[in-house]
Design brief:
It is built from 15 helices and 14 strands. Helix 6 links the parallel strand 5 and strand 6. It is α/β, with parallel strands linked by helices. It has 3 domains: 141 residues, 3-Layer(aba) Sandwich (Rossmann fold), CATH 3.40.50; 202 residues, 3-Layer(aba) Sandwich (Rossmann fold), CATH 3.40.50; 38 residues, no CATH class. The protein has a 6-stranded parallel β-sheet with strand order 1-11-10-9-12-13, with helices on both faces. A 5-stranded parallel β-sheet has the order 6-5-4-7-8, sandwiched between helices. A 3-stranded antiparallel β-sheet has the order 2-3-14, with no helix packed on it. The chain starts with a strand and ends with a helix. Its EC number is 1.1.1.23.
Length: 426
Amino acid sequence: MKIERAVDIKTLKRSIDQDSEAQLLSVQDILNQVKEQGDAALFELTGKFDGVMLEELRVSPEEIQQAYQEMDDELVEIIKEAAKNIEEYHVQQKKQSWFFTRPDGTMLGQKIIPLDSVGVYVPGGTAAYPSSVLMGVTPAKVAGVERIVLVSPPDKNGKLPAGVLVAANESGVAAIFKIGGAQAIGALAYGTETIKSVDKIVGPGNLYVALAKREVFGTVDIDMIAGPSEIAVLADGTANPAYIAADLLSQAEHDPRSASVLVTTSEALAEQVAKEVDKQLQTLPRREIAERAIRDYGAIYLVESLKDGIDLINEIAPEHLEVMTQNPTELLGQIKHAGAIFLGPNSSEPVGDYFAGSNHVLPTSGTARFSSPLNVDDFTKKSSVIMYSERAIQDNAKKIAAFARLEGLEAHARAVEKRLEEKEDE
């Protein structure tokens, strides 16, 4: 990894619009096919992109039962325990409707209502992601969403990974469909003969999935436009270089465009981490992917002080931030922009990915400046509740009418004044 004193984070700002014009045209064509042809398009496109001609889109109960048979019992128990941890965390986020009254008898409030239906996208391809099932489904279930469906691309045999099926079944998913890519997003947004449309689509995916989610936004809601994964580590000279190198590589192995960054006050640590990254790369099964990511989007930045380091972290606004300093909790209040913050040497980023309970669907590419991890609020909507009393309308009708006329809306003014006329005629 390169050790740099001059800070330039431009390479970390990776937009889905970069070199994606051809992909966008392809996505728009796929979405139109699904919209017009329904199931027929899904079968055709799955054959084209995933190399398998499916007989059924929906996963059968027998396939789910077989998944349990294929998985080691210990792994099933680990998935169950992780699901419990994730539910426990998200239950803390749940909010209640609220109301209050004023002395004039007016009642105001906010009604919090779960969405009716949600589609959870789970990536496939080079790896299986049962953790993405738990992270997408659990907050929706805690929020009270009645219908949760899951889509994920099948393998060449027309199957989904056993871990994905077990996690989905344990999470209480209503239906699982063996479709992926932009065509899956289209099916969830527009509906087909087999798949009923949903109100919101969540979950990470490749560039085609991200572009498709952006295209259907407005027809349905989406969680975010997720870019490549990223990690930043803020460290002083007390940190363990082997830990840091391992954690940097844990994100680099995701994707050749993943970003792994160390910000440190210690030149000695910087040199040790650079050597450790090279050393650990040698035995990494996904070495080719991680090596490209480290080469193109990896960096070690030397800063004069931890304050300078925190300023840089807030500028980067990383998806994952690890704080490996002598007193990490003392710095927490100064960190403004990060999707998830991991404090101390034992809080390796994969702890949050799989087991601690926090959500791993996080804002990327600097969007942690203004957005949050996937959470229970993402699966609810809110309605304002207004009940004006007779006294309140009598006291305030003229004020409301004056405000309406200030904006040139005479009918608005007359609507409230009509209440005064009715009262005067009694």
